[in-house]
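worker-03 picked up job from queue 'complexes'. Input manifest follows; two sequence lines, order preserved.
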Amino acid sequence: MSTALDLSSRQAATRAAAPPALPENPRIARQRILPASAERRGIPRGIRRMAGPVLLVGIWHLLSVTGTLPAEVLAGPGTVLSSAAKLWGTGELPDAMVASLRRALSGLAIGGSIGVALAVFSGLFRLGEDLIDSTMQMLRTVPNVALIPLLIIWFGIGEEPKIALIALATAFPLYLNVYAGIRNVDQTLVEAGRTLGLSRAAMIRNVILPGALPNALVGLRYSLGISWLALVFGEQVNATEGIGYLMSNAREFFQTDVIVVCLVVYALLGLAVDFIVRLLEKVLLAWRPAFTGA
Amino acid sequence: MATGLHGRMSATQNAAVSVRGLTRRFGDRAVIDRLDLDIAPGEFVALIGASGCGKSTLLRILADLDHEIEGEVEVPVKRAVAFQAPRLMPWKKVWRNVVLGLPGLPDRRRAEAALAEVGLSHRANVWPKVLSGGEAQRASLARALVREPDLLLLDEPFGALDALTRIKAQELVGELWQRHNCAILLVTHDVEEALLLADRVLMMKDGVIAHEVRVDRPRPRAVEDAYLAELRARLLGWLGVGHGAMEDAA
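worker-03 finished. Artifact:
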């Protein structure tokens, strides 16, 4: 008690003795906190993000016109653009796109439905799991592209091996994700469903499949990505139409401009399909809070 | 020998719930050990006990979610559960959640009537994820009551709510019980909540109903009631906390 008094009286003494502290204090280094709006001045973000690709094309163009990059190695952007327009005009490019898209989509339809069907069967039934899951887990380690020789022997060199390759490649991502989705459905919701008296069929329809849907859509995106990859490989095998055919023709004649056009088309088709899946997610997964705010 | 659940019939004819010699083991440990329990039709029973005493396990058994049991258990065919988490299907609008599992096509009018009872008609057509905690819990109550159960099982339904919302939800459950006249088993860790709502408070310990108090007080009840305060002290004593514990020891 007395020491506390002592201490406070001493503090009071020093405080009284010290001169007013403020002016003699060394200046504190300070920083102004800017409101977010102030930082957003300048070039809009969208334009800034475009700058990289535009710069790249600019350099590409510069190298082409100066002759540093010979047309045999890589055609300049101008040439690529004009040959794209020409290919579009003659109808070669649209035809090739339709042929390739048809292959990709029919392969995906076949492979996807097989993948989903197997996943639902092995996800819902113990018997299905025992029969299917270990087999699928084993087969998925085989690189699909390595199957091309076998597919050619089985299906010849027409459309079938190409579609079969795409179907094989797309079945696995969908299988794995739908299966995981079904198995990871929130057990507390399944229990709630049981207390509500849901029959097995009603449980599958109202709880398990909707619960697996987010994973299924992730699987769909993987499958679409892989279907494009499989398409590129498949179309290298004696194609008579499609983007791959355009490309291998161009290779014969060293038309690097056409090859670049085909690459760009592959990329754009991939982007378009991805956009569609995003849209699908927005509609089907509207119940997720992440999508209600938008 | 495991005995399944039967419909309400036989044995104790006029009871809503009758349990005889119920045992539930997890490994070697019997969490419920030859437990007996009767609940009369329309009776409001609260079940309290220290955490891990097996009260939620008992509720899960009565809800037909746990069959690894020995003994005899009879519950009404028409029963409903509201869990601590609302457990609404996030991909169904609130009103569809309410009527999920009812026979026939989803009946929106019926759902809305049930939601009106819990004061949620204005939220019928939203996704469950946008509901607040209290709203979701009320939707879960509406989903349980729309089934017109003879037995309503409540598993700490107010546990996750804030104090203010909890008081409102408790009042609501009291009102709904008087209107629907179903038997209720409320599992809770809140002694006050049990005393405010129940006809009978059971305390579970060592796998059986160790203590029981009857709460003879008209509703609505107030926590400040001296009679309830005395019961509360006694229950807390049995639970091993508060003044009651010291009196017991003395």
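worker-03 released lock.
Residues 200-234 of chain A form the longest helix (35 residues).
The domain at 80-292 of chain A is CATH 1.10.3720.10 (MetI-like fold).
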